[in-house]
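#lab-general

N.A. 3:47 PM
ok so I finally got the sequence cleaned up, no stray characters, all 278 residues accounted for. can someone with queue access submit it? mine expired

B.Y. 3:52 PM
send it over

N.A. 3:53 PM
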Amino acid sequence: MANEALTKELKGIALQLRRNVLEMIGVGNAGHWGGSSSLAELMSVLYFHSMRVDKTNPKNPERDRLLLSKGHAALIQYAALCELGFFPRAELQRVKSLDGLLQGHPDLTVPGIEAVTGSLGQGLSLGVGMALALRLDQKPSRVFVIMGDGEQSEGQLWEAAMAASNFKVDNLTAFIDRNKIQATGRTDEIFSIPQLDRKWSAFGWEVITTDGHDVDKIIDAINQAKTIKGKPTLIILDTIKGRGVSFAENTPAYHNGTFDQAKYAQAMAELDAQKAVI
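B.Y. 4:20 PM
back already:
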């Protein structure tokens, strides 16, 4: 359990990350608000508390690795890397532009990005390979992989899950952002995969389920994962798509939606109001 000061700090960072994402999307541009905002607390905990990262040396061999398998949510990762100082804040205004550093999916040209991701189902395979390499090199580093719940319908993901269990990759922790909505509707209506916890457990993983918007519970889950030996750990995060902006929450249209001037102003006002009560 985090202390009160740390909890408040991480909540404030999560809110700032959402604000950064909203700024990156701007007015009149389509952007992945829904699945980015549902990850704000996790990104806050990972980058600002639980992971070893070094902005002065992004390729430090002792660093922890984070792979955003659901690469369409790259904006929330950019938001965190910016706050850490991996690149100038001015880049947030040039997202998805020809002369900008930050593109629509994670790319190796961005400091702090470990792999090109976004073809859903592939991130876990990359993570397993990285974790095995770190084990061979006898490095203490850990690998974290973030997946979407809609992504669970990808076959390659389950091959990677079996491999991770078979090779006892206990320096690997995966997350499912279970916000229950994908691009065109609810995941249980498009491709229902019930009892995810039992499925992953049957594949040989330690499974933890927690509130994905409670920074204290996320810290506890990650700390627990670090103690598990002989098998990988999956943390299922119960989250809300579009978290933080009332009209966008649980709304498929904001998976990759557009804010007009009025909606943008309302969204920013709601985020600012939340800052006052942290």
